Amino acid sequence: MVSTRRLFAASQIRARVWTFDPSESIDIAFFSRRLQQAQKWRDWLAQKDGLDSYRLIGGESDGLPGITIDRFGNFLVLQLLSAGAEYQRAALISALQTLYPECAIYDRSDVAVRKKEGMELTQGPVTGELPPALLPIEEHGMKLLVDIQHGHKTGYYLDQRDSRLATRRYVEINVC
């Protein structure tokens, strides 16, 4: 099988496949296509579940190994977890800026796995404004506050939204 992949000897994962089409270049257009494919599914999901925040890119499952992007309203939180993803940072950010001009991009590539790939930890604004200390989001009709800058990983466990919904019926919210 022929593929375009990146090999890194320092990584525990020696090769990450970006495409099985040998004629496909890994460039801004490549990232734009992958982002648009992922967005089609997320649009349906967001509308169905009444979400303004969701995982836009989930690494290998979206054909972008080592890349996680969470959307919190008009903030995109980027996490690059592999040397190959870091190598493509500029092309990815260019594609994000073109497709999401209304969104600020915040980097949360401050996880220990980057050190295993020989990379520095990075965190901070990439484009646009700094997110507020607590960013309001809505999930299944619930209003929540997310700390993008200091929360765990990208700031919030978006993949646990169904657990929070299931738990809601057992918890009485009492606000003073």
From TrEMBL:
InterPro entries the record matches: SAM-dependent_MTases_sf
Keyword set includes Methyltransferase: yes
GO biological process, one term: methylation
This enzyme's EC code(s): 2.1.1.191
Keyword Signal (UniProt): no
Gene3D superfamilies recorded: RNA methyltransferase domain (HRMD) like (3.30.750.80), Vaccinia Virus protein VP39 (3.40.50.150)
EC category: transferase
GO molecular function, one term: methyltransferase activity
UniProtKB keywords: Methyltransferase, Transferase
Domain of life assignment: Bacteria
Name by which UniProt lists this protein: Putative oxidoreductase
